[in-house]
Amino acid sequence: MNAQSKPRRQGTLTLNLKATAPGVPTPQKTREPTTKKTRTQLYAENVAVLRILQTRFPLAFEADLKKKGKPLAIGIFEALRSVSPDIGKKRMRRALRLLTSSRPYLQSLAEPESVRVDLTGTVTTAVTDYERTLAIERLNAIARRRCTTATQPPGQATSGS
What we know:
5 helices, mainly alpha, 2 strands, Fertility Inhibition Protein O, Chain: A, Domain 1, globular, about 45% helix
């Protein structure tokens, strides 16, 4: 019997509402007002997380973020989550995104014969030609964005991503 020929079962929905006395306000959940973080604050948080990871795993993470680091192993996020539960999932994901989308990291991916490393600095796999091509495309996109930004008059916003 397939799913289309099965008879539909009508469900019932029951709500368990507690009645309050007339004139007594119903308690409502209140949230603390949240302030949205600026890009500068998020960047500083991400760099701080990367510094923590660099002190814990110096063989995997470069001390200077402006220098070429080693390409990280596929699945490094899960490994980091298991050994560093004190760093929030969102914060770690943002920090890794900052690192892996940086020009020095992409340049290290684009190099011929580059290899990926795990948290102990052990070589896991070689960077594939496809990954190398993607890194080169991303580097070219960064260069194009920088070129268009440099040619625009000051104060004019760029359109696109």
